[in-house]
Design a protein that fits this description.
Helix 3 packs antiparallel against helix 6. About 40% of the residues lie in helices and about 20% in strands. It is α/β, with parallel strands linked by helices. The strands form six sheets. The protein has a seven-stranded mixed sheet with strand order 15-16-17-14-13-19-20, with helices on both faces. A six-stranded mixed sheet has the order 10-9-8-11-12-22, with helices on both faces. Bound molecules: nicotinamide-adenine-dinucleotide and (2E,4E)-2-amino-6-oxohexa-2,4-dienoic acid. The site of nicotinamide-adenine-dinucleotide has 32 residues, from helix 9 and helix 10.
Length: about 475
Amino acid sequence: MKEIKHFINGEYVGSASGKLFDNVNPVNGQVIAKIHEAGEAEVDAAVKAARAALKGPWGKMTVAERTEILHRVADGITARFDEFLEAECLDTGKPKSLASHIDIPRGAANFKVFADLVKNVPTEAFEMATPDGTGALNYGVRRPKGVIGVISPWNLPLLLMTWKVGPALACGNTVVVKPSEETPTTTALLGEVMNAAGVPAGVYNVVHGFGGNSAGAFLTAHPDVDAITFTGETGTGETIMRAAAKGVRQVSLELGGKNAGIVFADCDMDKAIEGTLRSAFANCGQVCLGTERVYVERPIFDEFVARLKAGAEALKIGEPNDPSANFGSLVSHKHREKVLSYYQKAKDEGATVVTGGGVPDMPAHLAGGAWVQPTIWTGLPDDSAVVTEEIFGPCCHIRPFDTEEEAIELANSLPYGLASAIWTENSSRAHRVAGQIEAGIVWVNSWFLRDLRTAFGGSKQSGIGREGGVHSLEFYTELKNICVKL
Ligand code: NAD
Ligand code: 6OD
């Protein structure tokens, strides 16, 4: 059986403890590999390798040399596109038709974009007067922050991990990555690409394992980690923030959401339906930016519900290699239990189940998979668990509204503030509403349209800090002012 090992100081190594856990293919429940679980010794070795690499050739390279290597990393991912695609889909159960357009190309792009950005990042300079008349010159220089602990989730494994590792390395840092225990394979495979691209040993390290009392907690508690960047659940973010407080380490947190879509009667209905279908059901609803609450202006409510139902029922459920499938399995049986518990809660709370609400019939060879139906509800009260808590599944609740003010109030009513999508053809209204939504990202007449130079992140309990463009560079560098008396 294939084993997935840690990648430390440029080499694949197993755990000294010999502890292994299962890597399960969620579409059929079969064990596809055994994963080594890191103990404190492996985490410490990875952090030590990362520290040493900062002082080695990586730390001495010019920006031009470093960024050329990162371009080679991106090219290396592209050259091994099919292997990355296969691995990502085996770990997650997502359709290849999706991962080949989003996950893998973004994995490569995340290195190129930040490599190019650091070559062009401006710094500040100020001339100042001094009492003796000679003056002084202040100028800023950016230095790498040091060893970065990267903790990533399972929903877009390569995309979200490289979204952190790309800028961290471009800025001259070294990293120790702890991928999700559910989806370790592409993070492990990237080690081979790093070596082939000429990334010095110790710059990119990977340790596998779980969160609490395992590799995740050991990494965040390690005193020689200078900063921690995390994407995952809000509750885990709180735990990681507490760990980072020891030693006053900086954190970047991209957390959960319960995002609202607002559909006005003056929308282009085709666009609103197509966009809401994607935002609720893409990646089997396992996208932090996904829309789980849909507010629709009353005059078009019935038509919208009927058309979204038809769209959801037209989704083709299937395994990753099925070219016609656009809806895969959930990532794991554990996650399916959580999603199905909300499907049950919706029924208990008196929802009208517009479509779905259960488990689809699958052919015998896929019967052991983590499948659920795309699901739409109406009729729930605003304070029900299904409407207020992040489910992270392929489901949404649709509720009518009567005024713009009411829609804004409903959208802002939860402690989350990650993303929102507004559907209207009235551009004044679009700007007016977008400005009042309490979220880090607002899309108008689109969803998940990404320009990697823009700020990405959540407000309220959806996160701390921004990633993307120069905002990533803010986190991954220390800005130092040098004041020279002339
Ligand atoms: P999770 O918080 O359970 O796990 C994320 C990572 O943290 C995993 O690698 C896990 O092993 C690790 N971890 C768990 N407990 C830890 C601990 N005590 N110490 C250190 N590490 C620990 O999240 P998940 O279930 O993998 O991902 C789904 C969640 O992620 C959803 O809430 C989703 O909204 C969120 N998410 C947010 C964004 C964003 O950009 N805001 C993007 C993707 C996913
Ligand atoms: O596109 C991105 O850069 C990004 N961070 C997407 C996050 C998706 C959440 O599931």
